[in-house]
Amino acid sequence: MAPQEMDVQRALELLHMSVFSQSVSPCGKYLAAGNSYGEIGIFSLSAALSAEAKEESKKPVVCFTAHNGPVYALTSTDRQLLSASDGELKAWNWAEIVKKGCKEAWSRRPPYRSSLEVPEINSLQLNLKDNSLLLAGGDCTVHAMDLETGVFTECSRPQYGKWIRCLATDSDWMVCGGGPALTLWHLRSVTPTTVFPLAPAQHHAMFYQDLILCAGQGPTIYHLQLSGDVRAQIPCSPRALHSLCLNQRSPEHKVLTAAGSSHKIDVFTNFGYRAFSLAFA
Amino acid sequence: MSSDSSKKRKPKVIRTDGAAPDGKRSKADAEQDVKYYSEETEVDLRDPGKDYELYKQTCEELQRLMAEIQDLKSKGSKDSAAEIEERRIQSCVHFMTLKKLNRLAHIRLKKGRDQTHEAKQKVDAYHLQLQNLLYEVMHLQKEITKCLEFKSKHEEIELVSVEEFYKEAPPEISKPDITLSDPHHQTLARLDWELEQRKRLAEKYKECLTSKEKILKEIEVKKEYLSSLQPRLNSIMQASLPVQEYLFMPFDQAHKQYETARHLPPPLYVLFVQANAYGQACDKKLSVAIEGSVEEAKALYKPPEDSQDDESDSDAEEEQTTKRRRPTLGVQLDDKRKEMLKRHPLSVTIDLKCKDESVLHLTFYYLMNLNVMTVKTKVTTAVEMTTPISAGDLLSPDSLLNCLYPGDHGKKTPNPANQFQFDKVGILTLNDYVTELGHPYVWVQKLGGLHFPKDQPQHTVTADNSLSASHMEMTMKLLRTRLQSRLALHKQFASLEHGIVPVSSECQQLFPAKVVSRLVKWTAITYEDYLELSYTKDIVEAGLAEDTHLYYMALIERGTAKLQAAVVLNPGYSSMPPIFSLCLTWKGERTNNNDDNIRAMESEVSVFYKELSGPKPGYQLLTNQLQRLCVILDVYLETESHDNSVEGPKEFPQEKMCLRLVRGPSRMKPFKFNHPQGFFSHR
């Protein structure tokens, strides 16, 4: 392909890219983002947040193709980055990931019933207590994988109709949403306390201090109070947001990053407004 | 007393003088008179010294006597008279002695003088003799030196060396027995030999001269013969023209072309040569011709004297006209502009024939003052085509060759030096004159061998053959591809305007058998219209939609759902894909702003276009894209989840086979068609 054609191809790809997942490195200086083309881009938060940040600092330090399908979920242990896509799970060492030509440490496939369609893995959750990984995917099943041995066990098969997209817990409270509206549950009594008046489906929710941050179909992040009031709506560049990530691991790079249906990842230093955007290139 | 003495003396004197002449006279009768008194002989006999003493004595006596006389006289006595008389007589005698002595002295003197004179004369004679002899000696010496210095001419002649002489000369000349010993004879012999040789050589020289004359005459004759041959050959060539045409071997034509080509300006000449070479070597369907007026081209290069005369004439004319009426500033500027944009009277035409018999005509012009080449295009097709309305711009000469190479839009002059020239005459940009002058694309300059480095005006950019050659093949291929793709689009547009998406048999496998959505409308829109659409902002921001591109709007309908697709067609179709932006009007307006699935549909068509290229060279990309758009609209509508709140059945029952209806965090619909199983899945 001539360089001009490659530029056009890449430009088109960038236009139609969606970033589905993000994860922060154990040291807190790097942000990994997975997109719809199966690429994982590693951004350097320290470079982007520093005083003399240039345009190049907002581009990925390294970007490699991790999977054939979109990277739907990313999570980090203290040494590895785990990425999940169409029916496969791969692990990458954070130490080597910044160098080019990084190879995965291991890759696993959870056992699936049907071989015709390979279901995607939508969500990963680390269970640090017993060193296991929970995978939830499109086959409506939750798998648990032991990180040491790599053995999968099937856990539960919820057969509810409407899909649950996001879930967050904070001691007594749980907020979940997706198909149904975002709802705050009180865990002890297992009753919904507040239903938030948000029209679009919410894709991600998290507790932060005394607020609930959530984002979804529209191009805004909502700051909600537990009482149900919408405290703030922050506009972002992606049209729909799929993932919010809060960098708790490094105090000087404590930012909120939001990614969605765009090749840009918004970075919020002060959660009230968008500071700048990292972008895939 | 004294008178007496003188009287007495006189006769003596007379006697002596008389005696002398008498002596002389009477030499003849000397025997007669032997007794003459010769005082001259007496002189020889008397001793001069004694005479001198006598003289002294006499003088003293005389003085004594006088003194005595004096005394006597002074005393004055009477008897003294006798004494006085005596004394007087004595003194008279003494006087006579004195006289004698005087005479003797005179004679002696005379004699002495005579003798001196004689001696002197002798000496003079000797002296003269000596002088004469000396002169003679000198003269002889000169003569001797002259003789000694005499160079005989024979020494100037270069003779052969002695050894050679003895080797070559025949013995009767060299006479070795004499000459070896005698250098004089040797030299003589050598000179003889030299003379003989020279005589021989002189004869040879005469012979050669005559032969040269003969040969010159022969050459003259042959030249005349040849010059009379030329017109005969010309007439033969003329006669053979019809035969050439009959045999399709236009040598004459090619020759004429080369003649005309000599008058081309350098960039056009380079283009002509390279295109001709390429056509002969690689591409039989390429033909090159030169058009225009050769006389005008020749007239451009008038000799300088004529132009000076013209200048002075025109100055005179100008003065006259300014007196009458000043031309307005605008008219002057206009004239200057016309002058600056003047074209060379000759132009090069290249015709590219394609497989389907359509021809692309390119005419290349050269703007002399700007040192820039331009091109005008024309397309003739094998079959008369009715132009569909939307395809108006496809084959228009203005935009046919836009962006042949990326970014080469031909709106700006490629020669940076032109900007300064333009400023002088108030031309903003060459773009204003493009319709009459042609487009100054960068590839045209490269074909003419003109290379303009960016942003650096150079004084002279001369035409370079290697630059032209390296670009020729690529450019010709691109030109053909461009023409073919435009013609293919032309045909496709004709079909699209009738609502039919033409899908060739090779591409049928990309789509399911049954497609319900239909293309209803296909129109061309302007760039400004495109910019105003709300759902095209991303594409414009990404720099993928520029004013050199072509814009179209497609409308696909199924039932109550209407899908508007705005299409950006890059001039480099089909290596550059068309880009689609969608807006679905069905139960509200959905675009990529508010519906991720619409975004996915766009990416299906725009990003994954490689699957839709079809067989090479991929001219069916657009129609395949449109067909796929119809297919995924079907999928979208059919897989839309049923809204239970609304009464009635689904408007679009699901007919497509899908493994899963939604997938992933963004709840994607299955847009990917799998062949040959015929079901839809997700990417």
From TrEMBL, chain A:
Record-linked Gene3D superfamilies: YVTN repeat-like/Quinoprotein amine dehydrogenase
Signal peptide start-end: none
Name of the encoding gene: THOC6
Keyword ATP-binding: no
GO biological process: mRNA export from nucleus
Family from the record: Belongs to the WD repeat THOC6 family.
Name of this protein: THO complex subunit 6 homolog isoform X2
Pfam families: WD40 (PF00400)
Gene Ontology annotations for the cellular component aspect, listed alphabetically: THO complex; transcription export complex
Keyword terms: WD repeat
Source organism: Alligator sinensis
Automatic annotation (TrEMBL), chain B:
Location of this chain's protein in the cell: Nucleus
Region (Disordered): 1-42, 299-330
Database matches in Pfam families: FmiP_Thoc5 (PF09766)
Compositionally biased residues, Basic and acidic residues: 22-42
InterPro entries: THO_Thoc5
GO biological process assignments: mRNA export from nucleus
UniProt KW keywords: Nucleus
Annotated Acidic residues bias: 306-319
A cellular component annotation (GO) from this entry: THO complex part of transcription export complex
Protein name according to UniProt: THO complex subunit 5 homolog isoform X1
Organism: Alligator sinensis
Gene: THOC5
